[in-house]
Design a protein that fits this description.
This protein is an alpha+beta fold. The chain contains 9 helices and 15 strands. A hairpin with a 2-residue loop joins strand 14 and strand 15.
Length: 357
């Protein structure tokens, strides 16, 4: 039996290009995070029918929510979406295409009202019907912007678009869409670009303070700076260059500021937290905090500088929350880090050679 229902589809604009032109592992994870942001911003109690890769099909049976409720729902999702993108941009450590271009993504919304039928398939409720097809078809339109709220004529039929004074960002435009198999459909749309001015800027992370350098090491690596940096921040690559490592727990899906993991050795565990990653002209500064289970905490500050296609790496180690460390301990740590840097150099140079074969 068919029932009258609202169909509401938030759709990620720029998704196809983002997936095709960037690294699949990180792009998929970023999209998953953004879809979760959309789901968490569901103020109207809409039911999820399905998640369609770059979109969510929401519905609500019975009388449709008022137009102002729909506008406020789209506003909340749009602002939360772009606020999260700003956090990703702030905390970004990875230099891959997906992590660098995520901020190009945005949101559009389709709002339609019509008849549909629920079909139960195991634990899911699949929506079928003419209006479900039409709502999806309206995603392909000739609206001259990538971020908007579209309101179909079927939804607007019983609605009054009375706009409050405190929502001055709203402008309502009209359009006629020639939809295959449906003919001409009158729609109205609200550009959402003005909402970008309301997206909050996330606070900057607290700067990590260093004092009392324990030791410094330098090495020249015959590999491009971006390859060296990507290898340095790739947690799993530590199996190739960290001496004596037996396991790595809680490997982050994407390396970001405050992301952490734990390196397990025979008689030691080091909990490592990414604290800083700054990119300048021909150089990158990357900093980690290491917290050991024996109380000897330290800061590893890596400075990478591009030199004629190679990378000059300087590692400086600072104590954390400890004023004095025995000289024999410092010497032992320095020797370990020196061996690890040599292994890191060899691994990066191998990766560089392999990438050109």
């Amino acid at each position: 039996m068919e029932t009258q229902a609202l169909l509401f589809i938030p759709d990620v604009s720029g998704f196809t290009k983002f997936i095709i032109e960037t690294e699949i592992q990180h792009s998929n994870h970023i999209i998953s995070e953004l879809i979760e942001v959309i789901l968490n911003a569901n103020e109207l109690g809409l039911t999820i029918s399905e998640i369609e890769g770059d979109a969510v099909l929401f519905y609500r049976m019975g009388e449709a929510p008022k137009a102002l409720e729909i506008i406020k729902q789209a506003k909340r999702m749009f602002i939360d979406f772009h606020a999260y993108l700003k956090v990703i941009e702030r905390d970004n450590v990875c230099r891959c295409g997906a992590c660098r271009t995520a901020s190009n993504l945005t949101l559009k919304f389709i709002t339609h009202y019509g008849e549909l039928r629920e079909v139960a398939i195991q634990d899911f409720h699949k929506l079928i019907g003419r209006d479900v097809i039409l709502a999806h078809s309206l995603l392909k339109n000739n609206i001259p912007t990538k971020e908007y709220l579209l309101l179909s004529e079927a939804y607007l039929k019983d609605q009054e678009l009375v706009l409050p004074n405190d929502e001055s960002w709203i402008t309502i435009e009209s359009n006629i869409e020639d939809v295959e198999n449906f003919g001409e459909i009158d729609i109205k749309y609200i550009p959402l670009t003005p909402l970008r001015q309301l997206v909050p800027t996330p606070p900057q992370p607290e700067d990590i303070k260093t004092k009392g350098e324990l030791f410094a090491l330098s090495i020249q690596i015959d590999a491009p700076i971006l390859l060296v940096h990507q290898t340095l921040i790739d947690t799993e690559s530590k199996f190739h260059w960290v001496e004596g490592i037996r396991d790595i727990r809680n490997i982050p899906a994407i390396p970001r500021i405050n992301a952490s993991h734990t390196c397990v050795f025979e008689d030691l565990e080091i909990h490592i937290v990414t604290k800083k990653n700054s990119v300048g002209k021909n150089e990158i500064n990357y900093t980690e905090l290491g917290e050991t289970n024996n109380g000897l905490n330290f800061i590893s500050d890596y400075k990478l500088k591009q030199v004629n296609g190679s990378t000059h790496l300087t590692l400086r180690i600072f104590p954390q929350k400890i004023d004095t460390i025995p000289n024999n301990v410092v010497k032992r740590y320095a020797e370990t880090f020196k061996r690890n840097l040599q292994l890191f150099k060899e691994y990066c140079e191998k990766l560089s050679v392999d990438s050109h074969q």
